[in-house]
Amino acid sequence: MFRSILTSRLQAAFAAAGIALPEGLDAAVALAADTRFGDYQSNAPMILAKQLKTNPRALATQVVEKLDVSDLCEKVAIDGPGFLNFRISPVALAAKLLAIVSESSVGVDAVADPRTIVVDFSAPNIAKPMHVGHIRSTFIGDSLARVARFVGHKVITDNHVGDWGTQFGMIIHGWKTQLNREALKADPIHELVRVYKAVNAATKTTRENENGNEVPLEPEAVAKAQELRETCKGELVRLQSGDAENLGIWKECVRLTLEQLERVYSTLDIKFDHYLGESFFNDALAPLVDDMLAKGIASISQGAAVVMSDGSVKPEQDPFLTQKDGEWVPAPCIIRKGDGGFGYATTDLATIDYRVNEWQADEIWYVVGVPQQLHFRQVFAAAQRRGVNTKMIHIAFGSILGPDGKMFKTRSGETVGLLEVIDEAMERARAAVNEKEQGFSDAEKDEIAQIIGGGSVKYAELSQNRLTDYKFSWDKMLSLQGNTAPYLINAYVRTRSIFRKLGDAANLTSDCNLTEPAEIALAMKLAQFAEAVHDVLADHRPNTLANYLYELANTYHSFYEACHVLNSEGVVRNTRLLLCEGTSRVLKQGLGLLGIKTTERM
Q: Is position 581 within any domain?
């Protein structure tokens, strides 16, 4: 990667010039803000000169005299008050282009220090359908796992499904009393949700009046609802105690849900190494709490086992404190409730133990929404007190909004199902394919629609900054114009059409001579693919790669308009074919890292 090589050379030049870099200044080289002056730049001499109270241009000159980048750059210019501008030479770009078209890595270097990384993402609940709220975790987590694997890390993906909890008391009671076997056979998740909702509604002791306010039911109805609650609690207790009948019902709910989830994931081309749900860690919870109490990491407060602030960090950095009326007050993390039950924090701590001890995880990434920030801050802090040194990262994300800027829901107020979103996208893509009749068979149309539809939903998500909310728009998502999956896939199709026209005549050689500005611009953009890939993992933002691919497609279209490919000859033609092949490979690989397939025609 040019950027990392230039950074390393610049740091060496500072050392050779006898100039020590202060802590916090690493003499980094970055992409140039204005490419009229260079491809890369560094303001390190200017910053250091200010600290040393010396002339920045004189300092920059001193460094450049010791800087050897002749194999990469035509020149290193000192501009303004100490800026260093680097212009990559056409020869260096040509060598990188040849690597891109010949190497399976597409010119992307592997990491120097491979890590074992566990990526925890998607995590739907058993007996519930996946909905639009799962889009962000599922697509972001899958893309990050793909990128991490591609650059050489050992990645373990774990779908930590919600397969245990109080809802199963209601589901089991509903299974025994209200289940429609035919409906269960036709659509298991829909029937399980219906049963749960029916039982849950019957346990309510209030109703909503015409003004939208909750009012109590009649005493007889309240008593009946309370009795049903106790019945459901009893079913849950029997499940937790290992009752054979209830355990069998629970296992069937898990099996049916996982089968349907696999169909969703298969449609989306998403795979997991493990499905270790909450139930997997049940036996570890009580010993874990006992150990934390024995070691003084946790204490008893009002009958519950909790982790509290130990005063080791500043209040504003302490996850076990919160502000109330201008004062810092305890915000305990409950690991065992007063009634003896365990919460999510306990399960997450046990899960960390397993991932560290069994999988030897160096890092654990949790792709979970912003609202869980405090939960993970507390869990990570508690794990660290227990001696866990593994790096744990909460990769947070915002919400998906409807066109009205509110939470994306159906007209009836229900959460939009994920499968419904995917099916709708594919139907719309199929309609678009039908409009542009190009002699495709029905099977080819279906395949193209699946690629375009599924890719459009994924790209609409992954092109967004994960921390911001965004509006869901069908029209924008499926457009052939702008920053969309169809636009990028179409750019790939355009590169392949050139080679289809040439057939066997497309005999690429290593002859490459970049001369035209459009050729050099495209070669430079292709060379930056490696940097974009590694930048994704720097802050866990797939939109870095998505935005790069969009810029690459635009650069390719500009090249295509400015430089004739098929009508050129000799080295010029070979050079331009290499650029087309490089663009094709980078678009295919880059989209693949986002979990998006390509098609040769559309």
A: no
Instruction: Label residues 432-450 b or e (16+ Cβ within 10 Å = b).
Output: bbeeeeeebeeeebeebbb
Q: What is the pLDDT of residue 408?
A: 66
Domain membership of residue 23 (yes or no) is yes
Residues in a beta bridge with 86 = 40, 76
Contact 41, 33 (CB under 8 A): yes
Residue 144 has pLDDT above 80, yes or no: yes
Q: In this structure, is residue 234 part of a structural domain?
A: yes
The residue among 39, 68, 88 that closes a domain is 88
Instruction: Over range 133-140, report the average pLDDT.
Output: 92
Burial code (b: 16+ CB inside 10 Å, e: under 16) for 456-475 equals bbbbbbbbbebeeebebeee
pLDDT at residue 403 above 80?
no
Identity of the amino acid at 38: G
Question: What DSSP assignment string belongs to 159-225?
Answer: ---B--STHHHHHHHHHHHH--HHHHHH-HHHHHHHHHHHHHHHT-SEEE-TTS-EEEPPHHHHHHH
Spatial separation of the C-alpha atoms in residues 390 and 117, rounded to whole Å = 10
Does any domain span residue 309?
no
At 67 the pLDDT is 94
Q: How many domains does the chain have?
A: 2
Q: Report the 3 state secondary structure along 468-534.
A: CCEECCHHHHCCCCCCCHHHHHHHHHHHHHHHHHHHHHCCCCCCCCCCCHHHHHHHHHHHCHHHHHH
What pTM was estimated for this model as a whole?
0.93
Cα three-residue angle 327-333-336, rounded to 5 degrees: 140
Question: Domain of 175?
Answer: 167-262
Residue 45 to residue 50: CA distance in whole angstroms: 9
Burial class (CB in 10 A: 0-12, 13-18, 19+), 365: buried
Beta-strand pair 327-330/321-324? antiparallel
Q: How confident is the model at residue 528 (pLDDT cuts 50, 70, 90)?
A: very high
Are residues 137 and 270 in contact, defined by beta-carbon separation less than 8 angstroms?
A: no
What integer pLDDT is reported at residue 279 of this predicted model?
Answer: 94
Which pLDDT score is estimated for 415?
67
CATH classification at residue 15: 3.30.1360.70
Identify the pLDDT of residue 409: 59
Residue type, 398: G
pLDDT digits (tens, 9 = 90+) for 178-235: 999 999 999 999 999 999 999 999 999 888 777 777 778 888 888 999 999 999 999 9
Q: How many CB atoms lie within 10 A of CB 313?
A: 13
pLDDT tens, 284-320? Answer: 999 999 999 999 999 999 999 999 999 999 999 999 9
